[in-house]
Amino acid sequence: MMLSRNILVQVLWAYLLCGWTFGSELTFELPDNAKQCFYEDITIGTKCTLEFQVVTGGHYDVDCRLEDADGTVLYKEMKKQYDSFTFTAAKNGTYKFCFSNEFSTFTHKTVYFDFQVGEDPPLFPNENRVTALTQMESACVSIHEALKSVIDYQTHFRLREAQGRSRAEDLNTRVAFWSIGEALILLVVSISQVVLLRSFFSDRKTTTTRVGS
């Protein structure tokens, strides 16, 4: 019983370490004609992954640029809706990645990014990795991997749901404006037809009066 409890404590501790020390995940608004940069201290040899997606706004695209500590460009893409880039740090220092919406004149964007730094810590850091895992430890490792997959899928589907809702609201707004425009055009055409018909009868009446006199 004590062994099972210790294993569960280690699993929870591993998740806390993942949440505290590895990676940054953020959703933010990027105004039009604006640029937003983020910074991360990375040690040499660390494997990192940058993943981003535009959730709402315009054509759902943004410029992305990643630089190392010396300002060397590691990744640069223009007007991307989503992408993922993995690299290994070649030097120590502060790495910078920026999202730019400077090409847009009036549309702001909502951008999501996930910047993972390093590998996940071992689930059982105090265990001797030479020996085989027990059945309980193997089950915990499987659950750990399955939960990570569930979290990734949930994040992916939340982003898709938010993007779909934004598209639906944008389409609904366009349909509403189009309907109002059609109604106004129909009203103007109807009034124009009535005025035109009345002008025909008024001209005939005036002409008849002149001939009779």
Automatic annotation (TrEMBL):
Signal in keyword set: yes
InterPro entries: Emp24-like (IPR015720), GOLD_dom (IPR009038), GOLD_dom_sf (IPR036598)
Pfam families for this protein: EMP24_GP25L
Keyword Signal: yes
Transmembrane segments: 175-197
Localisation per UniProt entry: Endoplasmic reticulum membrane; Endoplasmic reticulum-Golgi intermediate compartment membrane; Golgi apparatus, cis-Golgi network membrane; Membrane
GOLD domain segment(s): 35-117
Domain of life: Eukaryota
This protein's GO CC annotations: COPI-coated vesicle membrane; endoplasmic reticulum membrane; endoplasmic reticulum-Golgi intermediate compartment membrane; ER to Golgi transport vesicle membrane; Golgi apparatus
Membrane topology annotation: Single-pass type I membrane protein
Signal sequence annotation: 1-23
Keywords annotated in UniProt: Endoplasmic reticulum, Membrane, Signal, Transmembrane, Transmembrane helix
Example GO biological process: protein transport
Family stated for the protein in its record: Belongs to the EMP24/GP25L family.
Cross-referenced PANTHER family: TRANSMEMBRANE EMP24 DOMAIN-CONTAINING PROTEIN
Protein name: Transmembrane p24 trafficking protein 7
Originating organism: Oncorhynchus mykiss
Upper lineage: Eukaryota, Metazoa, Chordata, Craniata, Vertebrata
